[in-house]
Design brief:
alpha/beta, FAD/NAD(P)-binding domain, 7-stranded mixed β-sheet, 5-stranded parallel β-sheet, NADP, thioredoxin-disulfide reductase (NADPH) activity, disulfide bond, Thioredox_Rdtase, Thioredoxin reductase
């Protein structure tokens, strides 16, 4: 008979690791599963300056390593095994991996979300080295420099406005000749003297030796290619990509309630399935940051513990 865990956490990003810390510290038999390696999006971040207490030049990988060690120090197990199917109904949940099958009284889904990428040469290599998907995380690195924002929706324009607090010039690159953002947001952008626009344009290539040094932009109407080179004194510029996110929730489609691919929870991280919780970027929420992910994970683990206790006879939620 398969071992039955109290809590199984799917995902070892900040949300999943925080859940692992809280669950195992509460003496719950805890397993943290990951398909490749711990970390999530934060492992691409060269410096974590906005996470409370990160004052020792913490990087994404170093912060994750600390979280992993902390969870394991309390007894949480960690395994690498891509989950391919789940059975969430009933008191015992079943997760089927490529290597093994796992059972638990409660599940915390912390699979995260991935920024939609441009898909051009150089993007992957220079992510975290000038290419960013988070203005809140990385805007301060481009103080008084030039930055480019790729996208034309609400998020792209709002983040462009935010970036003007730091950059001396912000240029929005959009594949159409008008923005898709709400008119009220557009007005703010058009009235901001720091914001400029490159219409009918897409990024074809990003170049640089360890840091962004130039990019090639194509006019989709004329086909003309233009190479934008970093200011000689700056040596680099920022490229902020805001063309959407892809929640990593396909595995749970039809199993839990979702909205636009994100898992719906209440403020206690409970999904519509008893004993199943969601935390971090994979759930519907207004701010996707390390600090909110870890908070979600902590709440989910505590509520999972309460759910398990309630299985002994007290109706959950009463």
């Amino acid at each position: 008979m398969s071992e039955i865990y109290d809590v199984i956490i799917v995902g070892q990003g900040p949300a999943g690791l925080a859940a692992g810390i809280y669950a195992s510290r509460d003496r719950r038999k805890t397993l943290m599963l990951e398909k490749e390696k711990p970390g999530g999006q934060i492992v691409t971040t060269a410096e974590v300056a906005n996470y409370p207490g990160s004052i020792e030049n913490a990087t994404g990988p170093s912060l994750i390593a600390r979280m992993v060690d902390q969870a394991k120090s309390f007894g949480a197990e960690g395994k690498i095994d891509p989950i391919v199917d789940v059975e969430l109904e009933g008191e015992i949940k079943v997760l089927k991996g490529e290597k093994d099958e796992y059972k638990a009284k409660s599940i915390v889904i912390a699979t995260g979300a991935n920024p939609r990428q441009i898909g051009c040469p150089g993007e992957k290599e220079l992510t975290g080295r000038g290419v960013s998907y988070c203005a809140t995380c990385d805007a301060a690195f481009f103080e008084d420099m030039e930055v480019y924002v790729v996208g034309g929706g609400d998020t792209a324009v709002e983040e462009a406005i935010y970036l003007t607090k730091f950059a001396r010039k912000v240029t929005i690159i959009h594949r159409r000749d008008e923005l898709r953002a709400a008119k009220s947001i557009q007005e703010k952008a058009f009235n901001n003297e720091k914001i400029h626009f490159m219409w009918d344009s897409v990024v074809e290539e990003i170049k640089g030796d360890g840091i962004v040094e130039s990019m090639v932009v194509k006019n989709v109407k004329t086909g003309e290619l233009t190479e934008i080179v970093a200011d000689e004194e700056d040596g680099t510029f920022g490229i902020f990509v805001f063309i959407g996110f892809i929640p990593a929730t396909k595995l749970f489609e039809g199993k839990v309630e979702m909205k636009d691919g994100y898992i719906v929870t209440d403020e206690d991280m409970r999904t519509n399935i008893p004993g199943v919780f969601a935390a971090g970027d994979c759930r519907v929420k207004s701010l996707r940051q390390v600090v909110t992910a870890t908070a979600d994970g902590a709440i989910a683990a505590v509520q999972a513990g309460k759910y398990i206790d309630a299985l002994e006879g007290t109706e959950y939620g009463k």
